[in-house]
User: What shape does this take?
Amino acid sequence: MFDNNDICRFMKENYLKYKNWNIEEITKLFNIVISDLHDRNVLIFQKDTDAVILKSRFVRKQCLKCYYINYLSASSESPNCHRCKSDNLKDFPSKK
Assistant: This one.
């Protein structure tokens, strides 16, 4: 379980990219991402506590067509690239 406000504060404090952003900008961007993950059935909102719960682990797959790195829910998402919709994905990083 993750608290939305804690994640946004953590991003501002620990990621150089967001250091000069105000917390409202980070929260707005974060909410867009969280909404997309909810629509893809990857997580659940807990409205009473403003928390987010992941339904399952993520796996990383690289598209062999456009080379995009996808983070997919291990159990609930179809294995298609989020950029080009190809189903030609491999584990990333590749297992040797």
In short: The chain has two domains: 2-54, 58-91. The first strand starts at residue 2 and ends at 3.
